[in-house]
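Sample intake sheet
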Amino acid sequence: MSWVRALKDTARSGLRVERTRLQPLIALRAAVGLAIVIGAGLAFLGPGSAASSAFGAYMAAIATFQKSWRPRPVLALSAGLTLAVSTFIGYLVGSSHTLAFMLLLAVWSFAAGLMWAAGPTAGIIASGNVAIMLVTVTLPTSVPQAAGHAAMIAAGGVVQALLIVLFPIRRWGAQRDALADALAAEADYARRLRQDPVASFDPEPLMKARDAAAVTVRQARRRPAELHGARGLAERIRPVLALLADPAVGAPAEGPARDRVRELLAAAGSVLDAAASAIRHGEAVRLPAPALAVLKAPDTADLFQGPALRAARRLAALLDDVLDTAEPGSGRTADPGESMLRPTLPALAPMVLAAVRAELRPGSPILRHAVRVTAVACAGYGIGHALPFGHAYWAPMASVMVMRPDFTQTYTRAVARFGGTLVGVALATAVVQLAHPGMYVSGLLAVVSAGLMYTFMRTGYAVSMVFVSAYVVFLLGMGGLRWDQTVPDRVMLTLVGGVLAMISYAVYPAWETPRLRTRLADWVAANGRYAAAVLGQYADPAGARRDEVRSALLAVRDARVAWQEAVDRAAGEPVRHRGISGAAAEDAGRALAAMGRHVMLLEAHFPDRSRPPVPGAAELARALREATEAGAKAVRERRVPDWEGVRTALADGGTPDPGVLRGAARQLLDSLEEVSEALRTPPRPDSGDGRHA
């Protein structure tokens, strides 16, 4: 799309207010922690130390609201302690010379930018530490004071962590929601299959539930029984639902058997919804009796036969297991040896370093982000000093907080930060002008503002910035700074910081659009490995390795999600397509999703280990693996892939036999041919906005 269109879209997105579920109790707990450290600081150490401890508690609470499966106390401690270290080192360097501090700022900003390689939570915490450090290094006046301020910042993180431990709110809530969302997605899939027997399924809820299921050794001993096992059952239910609904291998498309399929799918949806609700709220399962009656109906065996009958019986058994697992207290606590263990923080360090090293290469979007953040932070700090406003740190602070590795988020947050700052400082100024609050009242207003920010954080960045701006005005006013000494400076330097962030991405971008072909190629190759692994089970049932199929399936899901995220990001970029149009991307994605579905149906029909090898399966597996690897290379090189090897394998060996493999091989080839046809389609003429991908 054009730059004008992109700017309009990002501005609208930045100012949009989302309707989402609020977490007032968690926000209240975070605000209480902030009130404790501010009150203690004012009572015993003075406004300067109170402000330092407030920033520590503030950032620690922010960290606990991030989408991470790490224990919340660990996130609070990590944020508070790293900010304390950054502040102390920053003061030691900055107190001697401005250029030395700018060098440290460059190193810190570059490291913070690279931390996005470890994930969004690490990137957000690191970016926040750099931004807040710019403020906190200005508070002490001596090295002992700097050490004291760093200790107070760390204490703020400790207080937030202790409150989480002492006053837990909805234990395992994030994990419960992830598992419940996965089961609810399966329920929705079952209902959609009633109308569309070949409906698609987005695997993201299952992937999220898998991430949530990874726990530390200590967590594994304490995890509620209902959170152990249901995810694996949901994984096994999905192919059974698809098999039962598919008229090619399940029940006929019309007639009494198809009516019973619709009844079974509706009953499955009811059972899965009931299990999801029970897991989400930690309550007993409330299941409508008609759903169980349908699943246990004795005449099912009279209506179905072959794969459809096996699928119906398998579905009933799996749903029984889901109900048993979802019932609170019905199962045993997971043994740590049976859990997917999450590495401890010390064990995570080498993994993070490896991820960072992998991004130190030309063309890496993370490396480009780190370079942009470094340049903008240093430039903003220099410009802030050159301008006659004072508070030079506000420009680089605004830049660091809004910058993200992709275009849309950076521009959206820049607009939202400036808009929210205008509203927030206006409201805070009005309160100061009318009430003339003293030190303690200013501290109370700062706590209230932070509490409102925690409450409405997920409704949009602009909304949260309204309260953040008010929080900073009241917090600095607590130390004796008048509103007219802070508000005009903050508004102007926030604008400078946002503009610098936007210019940096335009000058040194990391567009996703040119990488679409690479993402598509990764999905092609992953699908080929998955298909080959599944066909390998037919070629050698006795030596079947199901773990190989499982790892291939997970790789396919990762590649599919990476592709979809890339398409979504590219859709908002002011870049013309680079070899793949929007229509081609949509058609190719649909074909690869269909291919994955065909392979999933094959996986649902794995032969018993006692069965003899299926003729032709080994040759087809080899041909698919080689053809998709070559096809992925062709996609990356902007050529149309050719699937002659697969066609030859089918022609020479014949269609593999028996049962469900008959026709499945042809469907796989048809899906691959559709990918080639999509890439062969010429781009549509420019419609005026320049948008193709």
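Comment: Residues 513-680 form a domain with the Methane Monooxygenase Hydroxylase; Chain G, domain 1 fold (CATH 1.20.58). The chain has three domains: 3-170+348-507, 173-222+224-332, 513-680.
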